[in-house]
Amino acid sequence: MQNAKDTFYEVLRSRVVAGNPERTIVLRGLIRPGVLVEENELITATTLPDCFRLRWTETSVDRAHQLPLAVMRCEVFYETAGQVGNGGMDRGRALAAMDAELAEAIGATPQSASKQNYAGLATSGVAAPMSSRIWWTDVNFGAAEIKGDRVGRSATVMVMSYEEAGE
Amino acid sequence: MRANGGRAVWLRTPAPAVANDDAEQLGLAVPGFQDVELSPVVLRKAGNTTTLLVSGSAVNAVVGSLQFNSAQVLFETAAGVVMDEVLYTILDHTASTSDGKTYSYSLTLRAPER
């Protein structure tokens, strides 16, 4: 399942970058694309605005197939205060722009990708392609929420993958 | 602060992220950490949180030596505060100023859940 999660993150990040190269964040002194996986980052009390934060929640495995089918729920959180220069009065438009970027990144065809094993990166290696693919549903947007001077939303996408031998 | 039993704590800061390093973004590699001393500080416990009052000059020295842009960036980048070998999460921070100079910082800390 970890390979499917890693692959989905890599695909989503590259698509967000392609859609809006200016969607960036500064994290630990480095400018990087504005997409992150919460469980892979340091625990902090502050929430970064203007980026997509992926949180993996529910997981189920259906073994009634030739290969076990893993279904994982990915929740994407994001919020924005708009631009300081506009006094935050454009925060609704900024949130709509993020909605559009996420819908485009997840809904673009194909809604599947070749599964990769990224374990080799830990030893300065490269990602290794696997035999199967991952695929995912359309994005389902939740209601907008007011968080202080920010407005935010969570969206949900289900990611599926067959578990290969050794996973 | 010294008159009120000022003590030392350690601010745990991660090493800067590595550019284009997917291993870190995928949780396959962890950054190195360094502990820098903050002294003098005084503590006040209130409910589930602890308030840490830190000398402004001590913070400014750390900001300068680690080449952070500001104390705000320093605290938001830090992994937490180490006291008695326990890592506390920084919930928020405020600065107290006089004549345009910061003389102390107040950090609200939360102990790890056990």
Question: What does this protein look like?
Answer:
The complex is a heterodimer of chains A (167) and B (114). By secondary structure, chain A is an alpha+beta fold. Chain A contains two helices and ten strands. In chain A, the strands form two sheets. In chain A, strands 3, 4, 5, 6, 7, 8, 9 and 10 form an eight-stranded mixed β-sheet that branches. In chain A, strand 4 (52-62) and strand 5 form a beta hairpin. In chain A, helix 1 (2-19) packs across helix 2. Chain A is globular, with a radius of gyration of 17 Å. Chain A starts with a helix and ends in a 5-residue tail after the last strand. With 114 residues, chain B is α+β, with helices and mostly antiparallel strands. Chain B is built from three helices and six strands; from the N terminus they run E-H-E-E-H-H-E-E-E. Chain B has helices spanning 22-25, 56-65, 71-77, and strands at residues 7-14, 33-46, 49-55, 80-83, 86-98, 101-110. In chain B, strands 1-2-3-6-5-4 form a six-stranded antiparallel β-barrel. The longest helix of chain B is centred in the middle third of the chain and has 10 residues, at 56-65. Chain B starts with 6 loop residues before the first strand and ends with a strand. In chain B, 22% of the residues are buried. Classes of the chains: A alpha+beta (167), B alpha+beta (114). Chains A and B meet through helix 1 of A and helix 1 and strand 5 of B.
